[in-house]
């Protein structure tokens, strides 16, 4: 594990290397822009110029990603590549100027330091002055600060120019958004269909079987002639009816809990925690109720995550936390189970689609041996 000082030094070296390479390529780009600008007049030569500009822009895109840590997409058109080079050569020239000044400053500082150590007057003269060490120290500190700020400024400008020209255009962003919405719509439809199938399965395997058993008990009670036997069968039928009602209540809670509508998300989650078969703690930090759609998504994220934990993780404890930032509601469920949850599984992937439909973010962190953390971020007004 490297120390913070080593990481800072490596980062500074990487940025300086990137700016140095950018300063060198800036001169080649300046020559290219000046020589090819007249060729943009005719369509035939323009295609060749734009194709060459794209190759140079790809070199710059790789440099910015590798040394300045700024990834940009490669879906820009060739015309934007040429315009990028026209602006980039100016930024690269600025970076070259800053680097040259730093080199000159280092050489000058070394000369002054040598004069101080040898007892000579700094900058020439007969006798050294008492304030020479103070002047060199303060001046060197100030110039070092300005040099660092200059490098950071050029690096930020380099990233901004690359993002402006090499990132997706407004039209491309709109196309991507349309594709995302179309994908999200299809995923929501699939999630709804999967939810319907689950409800049908719960009714068939749970409530329906209990009602069938109840009908059989009542039928046996009608046919029985012994009073004691009839009482026993009626008692069993009563117990079976209570079980059927409990199973039906569980199904309706999973469909849409009435507490969510009447009491809000906090009350619904309290009820969910109380019905859990393992100790479940709830930390609810929202001072105001979110909108109904956000409440519904947040509730089902918690409900499905808790259900998965109870079924598969073997956990002994579950923690539910609901908090809020300025623009997002954060829902996090943590269990101390065996871990290894599969985000591509039916339950968690359905949650991811539901959260994506609300323009939210969804993540699952479940290493082997746990703990498992399910986190959803939902936008709020």
Largest sheet composition = 5 strands, mixed
What fraction of the residues are assigned to beta strands by DSSP? 5-15%
Radius of gyration, whole Å: 34 Å
Low-confidence stretches: none
Tally of domains: 3
Distance between the termini: 42 Å
The proportion of residues forming helix, as a percent range, comes to over 70%
**What is the overall pLDDT average?**
83
| Strand arrangement across the biggest beta sheet | 1-2-3-5-4
Protein structure class: alpha+beta
| Oligomer category | single chain
Order of secondary-structure elements: HHHHHHHHEHEEHEE
GO cellular component, one term: membrane
Domain Histidine kinase/HSP90-like ATPase: 299-342
Pfam families: HATPase_c, HisKA_3
EC number: 2.7.13.3
Can you summarize this structure?
This protein is of the alpha+beta class.
Describe it for me?
- The chain is of the alpha+beta class.
- The chain folds into 3 domains: 4-168, no CATH class; 186-255; 259-379, Heat Shock Protein 90, CATH 3.30.565.10.
- Helix content is 70%, strand content 9%.
- The chain contains 10 helices and 5 strands.
- The protein has a 5-stranded mixed beta sheet with strand order 1-2-3-5-4, with helices on one face.
- Helix 3 (78-118) runs antiparallel to helix 4.
- The radius of gyration is 34 Å and the shape is elongated.
- The relative contact order is 0.06.
- The mean pLDDT is 83.
